[in-house]
Amino acid sequence: MRYATDHVTVTVPATAGNLGPGFDSLGMAMGVTDEVEVWALGSPRVEIEIEGEGAETLPRDETHLIVRAIRAASDAVGVPHTGLRIVARNSIPHGKGLGSSAAAVVAGIAAVRGLLAEPEVLDNEAMLRLATEFEGHPDNAAPAIWGGATVAWLDHEGAHAVPLDVAQGIETAVLIPRAVLPTKEARAVLPEKVPHHDAAFNVGRAALLVAALSGHPERLWAATEDRLHQGYRASVMPSAAAMIEYLRERGLPAVVSGAGPSVLVIGTALAAGGLVTGTPGWAEGIGGDSWSCVHTAGSVPGVSVAR
Hints:
InterPro entries: GHMP_kinase_C_dom, GHMP_kinase_C_sf, GHMP_kinase_N_dom, GHMP_knse_ATP-bd_CS, Homoserine_kinase, Ribosomal_Su5_D2-typ_SF, Ribsml_uS5_D2-typ_fold_subgr
CATH class of the largest domain: Alpha Beta
Mean pLDDT: 96
GO cellular component, one term: cytoplasm
Keywords: Amino-acid biosynthesis, ATP-binding, Cytoplasm, Kinase, Nucleotide-binding, Threonine biosynthesis, Transferase
Number of domains: 2
Shape: globular
Number of strands: 11
Domain GHMP kinase N-terminal: 65-148
Catalytic activity: L-homoserine + ATP = O-phospho-L-homoserine + ADP + H(+)
Largest sheet: 7 strands, mixed
């Protein structure tokens, strides 16, 4: 296996995992993207430039998540490690439940696919299995790869996913607070066991959500109810809990985006309800926080690579 080029540009979307009841399985691509340029160098050095999110905090050496993903993908296909120059232009917020780490991992793996003379060896399924080894769960990586909405699962072979046919007219809006919540902290508050009736409730709602997304948007409010994680996490993301309560009381299908604290709304004609891209005045102060909004109409494409 060898590289056919020494430069690629990767574009990868933000994602929302869970979508309410589909814990660690359902996910959706959002209308915010990171762009990463990667050069394979003849020397062993690693050079990283970061613009936007994480410019002040992310490492600029082999420990950077994109570099680690490139190394893992190179090992998987048997390509020797090279020096790297990476320019990351980050727009996906960090620590907000929008899949920034999954985007970095997918970007690194996709960069290797783009550099290869035989990119088909890193097809979507292979990319997902590699990404899930980093993430531990596939609900963010799957929509980052396929785009749109996806259902993902794990078995003895690793991670798998299938894209969903989302009906025309279904839109998303993500409300992003100033507050940050590390995924590890959000997972730490979840119990090891849940009551059987809560598990049964979520199975029904997750199945209903697939139907709602595929052509029954009038069922989205009921389909986005959850008893497995959002209630347990309310104590560590009070602003998100307050925003979800505010929106659902007004009939809007609102859920925690991934591990939070961003809030995702899935529905139709969302702009008419004030869910437009920008800083909606009505949201100011809800949960004691300030909020920005990203509204997306139509399906968001998954990761793309340009040579």
